[in-house]
Write a structure and sequence with these properties.
Length: about 950
């Protein structure tokens, strides 16, 4: 629901005022003027009167400056003296104003009226910025209040500038909302507010009686009325050409307004001003009147208080009770959509439907399928006494005939008015056709599946029809059915229109919407679904069943619950779904209380590796099941599980893989070159399957009760070439065995170094026994780079023999198995492999790792990239090219005779520095630079030379990491 209480925006338009009046331009709206600003009305109004102008591109530059000449022009225009200014162009009394200056006429008129005096030295400063006090002084003088300014300083002319003028302006309320500062140039918005405030101030007029000078304030004589010929009144908008709160509308191009001053209705030319949505509202209006008495609207403001008006979207009406004669109560949903509230309508309210008074309207007329109710409390009694109904009929185009001008609806039956005639040539109808963007359109623009929103009014004098064409299709699949009113398409929420529910679903043209239904959805003008052209029905989705059980064992809520990793939507963790009262398992229907037992039996009967490592006693200890089983499933509109398909049925097929399920070896090797998993059967025959970018991969943790650790992805990002994985493949097709779904248990289980292996720098080596194995009596302490610093400490336990070649500053890479991998391998702690890049070259040693190992994500292009790591000494560095001498012998002879590797060092290469001579807190530097490194060529004449040791990591031939090692 959306409660909208509002004050309508100010609307401006254009009109030509003849005789002594001004010419007013078209509506002025500026892209850089915020309508919520206090000066917005002033800017709009003055722009409409052409007292102030904007810039090319539709801007006003409210914080811009204004020159003294420009402001003099504003004042002269406000005095209605534009013609005089034009006639007075030429020489001025000021020495710094050229005869051909564009503002010379304005300056001459303003100086002749005593509004400007210049600086006293014969100059005016035409291009100088007008300051706040200068602008105030000009306005006070234009209103005739110079005598008031003098009185504020004891009639001492020497003191009147500027304090007298400022004091007079405060009394006249001219500076309200301006907040200017003396000596500071006035902003354009401040100038606009100053002039706007002055337009309705009573003028002071000077006269001479009996030789004595007199000053007299003329009540109701203002710049607007006397100089610009504009009358200002308050009243109520009774009618325009489309709407009315009386029995008849205004004629085309006119409005009828009740004038509170004259206490009667007045008819005005609307001057092109749109008053849509303002009928029945209190307004302040400005108009001009020519010599023949013809009144033309200049400007109009909606003055209805927000507390006296309420707009309710038709979709948010919960119910309407009572009667027109005895009063109504309207219950509707609040804007937050979480609660309802009720308002009262007085007896026999005035009811207007699409701008026409309808004395025969009933309660049903107040509940349109599409539209809104505008309630007005015109008497301010606390009960709404006017109901303005905006009603649209929705038509989804099935066909359109250019000969008969008929549009046939996609879903309505013949008894439900399934056609409508849109004939713009019919003189009895005033028909407008527009696209949702507002662009004009014709019948020829209407095509199949367009959604038409039609607002029509029938009257004896003239029928009107407004047609809005919406062409806003959304293609995709339903990813969730939240409730009877809301679905998600491609994970974005959409509402179903009342039209769609009544005609499309109600007439059976569209069946119950289900998750994975796909096709094209067509939205109406309000962004709600009005039509659905289905291309595929919902089938069962893949999912990984992580848990199933009842409240009695700790799962939330009463009844049956499933925790499933879904095929679409949330990719991390298992999602909770309630079970329906009956659930079909492989086609057989079971009561909710029997579902868990049946699933247990299926899990125990199917021969897959997913049972390995799971303690069967878990089923005895609690009455819950953590089955770790791939399934297919379906949901109803309440997101309850209704169907489950398992390997025990015919809907799901596990691919025969190249490993012995009952044996010890349960891994397959992944080959990234062709996205293939390969292995051998007990008979030694090779079998394989492949994956592609659409293959769904479900990852299962070793602790099946940790529901948040399940995950789902699509494609091959989880897998790395030549790594081994515990996997299951499902629904593989074709000669290549392309799997639609894969279950991955843990991560890679081989011990090969790969492009994801962590990289660390050794800090120290000490003698200490591993808590797990006393044979490992050397503790290697290293740090991995992560999150901006070397803050991940790694403890590596090795034998004395293996660790003898490792030293502080060595760069190492090693495999790190997760706990999941260890469990998959029957709980055995396999040895780890480590590569060490030291002075002796690359070594492979077997070590044991203790503590929490955190992997480092290396930025690489894709999972096909190969990596290489090498070390040597920096021979030279010039023009961002490093020459690395590939030797571990730090002698001049070795470096000069060694092969070199050319390494381009771009800004994307991460350069790290290890300096053993620095303190522990500053030993590692994460933002190093080769500009500061010592190269052989730069230091070979020194004794000893200082070539830095360099370790480089390349991925797919591109340098990614460089380590500068100083021991």
């Amino acid at each position: 629901m959306k409660l909208k209480s509002r004050l309508l925006s100010l609307i401006l338009a254009a009109t030509l005022v003849v005789g002594g009046f001004v010419t007013v331009g078209s509506a002025a709206t500026f892209s850089d003027v915020d309508e919520t600003k206090s000066y917005a009305t002033a800017v709009s109004f003055l722009a409409a009167l052409k007292l102030l102008k904007g810039y090319d591109g539709g801007t006003f530059k409210p914080d811009g400056d204004i020159t003294r000449t420009e402001f003099a022009a504003v004042i002269v225009r406000a005095l209605g003296q534009e013609p005089s200014a034009t006639a007075s162009m030429g020489k001025t009394q000021f020495t710094d104003v050229a005869d051909d200056h564009w503002g010379s006429g304005y300056i001459n008129v303003a100086s002749s009226l005593g509004i400007i005096n210049g600086f006293g030295d014969g100059t005016f400063g035409p291009e100088a910025l007008v300051t706040y006090e200068q602008a105030v002084k000009m306005v006070v003088c234009a209103l005739g209040y110079e005598s008031l300014a003098l009185s504020k300083v004891g009639n001492d002319a020497s003191k009147v500038w500027p304090s007298g003028y400022l004091a007079a302006a405060v009394q006249l309320n001219i500076v309200s909302g301006v907040a200017g500062t003396e000596g500071v140039p006035a902003k354009r918005w401040q100038v606009a507010r100053l002039v706007y405030n002055s337009l309705e101030v009573d003028l002071m007029v000077r006269s001479v009686v009996g030789g004595r000078e007199r000053f007299e304030v003329k009540p109701d004589k203002t710049l607007l009325s006397e100089n610009l010929g504009i009358t200002v009144r308050n009243g109520e908008l009774i009618a325009n050409s489309a709407e009315s709160i009386k029995s008849s509308k205004a004629r085309a191009g006119e409005v009828i307004i009740y004038d509170n001053t004259e206490e009667e209705n007045v008819t005005l030319k609307d001057g092109g001003i749109s008053t849509a949505g303002m009928v029945g509202h209190s307004v302040k209006f400005y108009y001009s009147e020519d010599v023949e008495g013809l009144k033309t609207l200049i400007y109009i403001e909606d003055k209805t208080k927000s507390s006296d008006i309420l707009i309710i979207d038709a979709d948010d009406i919960e119910e309407i009770t009572g009667s027109i004669e005895n009063g109504l109560k309207i219950k509707y949903w609040r804007e937050d959509g979480n609660s309802t509230t009720t308002v009262e309508v007085a007896k026999n309210p005035l009811i207007s439907i699409n701008g026409r008074i309808d004395s025969s309207a009933d309660v049903d007329d107040l509940q349109p399928l599409t539209g809104s109710l505008e309630l007005i409390d015109s008497e301010r009694t606390g009960k709404f006494d006017r109901i303005m109904v905006t009603k649209y009929e929705t038509y989804v185009v099935k066909s359109v005939s250019t000969s008969t001008k008929k549009v046939i609806d996609q879903y309505r039956t013949t008894s439900q008015d399934n056609s409508i005639t849109i004939d713009t040539s019919d003189s009895s109808w005033d028909i407008t056709i527009k696209k949702q963007s507002g662009a004009e359109a014709t019948l020829s623009n209407i095509t199949q599946w367009n959604v038409l929103s039609i607002k029509s009014t029938n009257a004896s004098s003239r029928n009107t029809m407004e047609v809005i064409i919406t062409s806003n299709p959304v293609s995709g699949s339903i990813t969730a059915v939240e409730d009877e009113d809301t679905i998600e398409i491609n994970n974005k929420e959409y509402k179903l229109s009342k039209y769609f529910k009544k005609y499309a679903i109600g007439n059976g043209a569209v069946s119950e919407l289900k998750v994975d239904d796909s096709g094209t959805f067509y939205l109406d003008k309000d962004g709600k679904i009005a039509a659905f052209n289905k291309t595929a029905s919902a089938g069962a989705s893949y999912g990984f069943l992580a848990a199933v059980g009842y409240e009695s064992v700790g799962l939330e809520n009463n009844g049956l619950e499933f925790y499933i990793v879904p095929q679409t939507g949330t990719s991390s963790g298992a999602t909770k779904y309630h079970g329906a009262s009956r659930v079909r398992i492989d086609g057989t229907s079971y009561k909710a209380e029997n579902v868990v037992g049946e699933i247990k039996d299926i899990v125990n009967s199917i021969n897959t590796i997913n049972n390995d490592g799971v303690d069967p006693s878990i089923y005895d200890e609690i009455n819950a099941c953590y089955p770790s089983m791939l399934i297919k499933y379906s949901l109803n509109s309440s997101k309850e599980v209704t169907d489950i398909y398992t390997l025990a049925g015919d809907e799901l097929e596990q691919t025969e893989l190249g490993y012995n399920v009952s044996g010890d070896e349960k891994t397959l090797t992944y080959k990234s070159s062709n996205r293939q998993f390969v292995g051998k059967t007990e008979e030694g025959k090779q079998s394989k399957f492949i994956i592609d970018s659409k293959t769904i991969v479900f990852t299962v943790p070793s602790d099946r009760s940790q529901l948040e650790k399940y995950s789902r992805t699509t494609g091959y990002s989880k897998f790395y070439s030549d790594s081994k994985y515990c996997v299951e493949a499902y629904d593989a097709t074709g000669s290549t065995n392309l799997a639609k779904a894969v279950v991955l248990y843990g991560g890679a289980v081989n011990d090969d170094i790969n492009e994801r292996s962590p990289t660390a720098i050794v800090e120290s080596i000490s003698t200490a026994n591993s808590p797990d194995n006393s044979d490992y009596n050397r503790k290697i302490t290293a740090y991995m780079f992560k999150s901006g610093s070397y803050n991940v400490k790694v403890l590596i336990w090795a034998t004395e023999a293996d660790a003898k070649n490792v030293g502080a500053g060595d760069v190492i890479r090693f495999t790190s198995f997760s706990e999941e991998t260890k469990d998959i391998n029957d709980g055995d702690k396999k040895p780890y492999k480590m590569e060490i890049y030291v002075n002796e070259g690359k070594l492979d040693i077997t070590v044991d790792v203790s503590g929490n190992i955190e992997e480092v994500d290396i930025n690489y292009a894709n999972d096909n990239d190969h990596f290489i790591m090498f070390n040597g000494y920096l021979k030279s560095y010039e023009d961002n090219i490093a020459q690395i001498a590939l030797t571990t012998d730090k002698t001049k002879e070795a470096i000069e005779g060694a092969d070199t590797e050319e390494v381009p060092v771009s800004s994307s290469v991460n350069v790290f520095v290890y300096d053993s001579e620095k303190s522990a807190s500053s030993r590692f530097e994460t933002e190093g630079s080769l500009d500061e490194a010592d190269s052989y060529e730069d230091t070979k004449e020194m004794e000893p030379f200082k070539a830095d040791e360099i370790v480089v990591l390349k991925i797919d031939g591109v340098p990614r990491f460089m380590y500068i090692i100083r021991r």
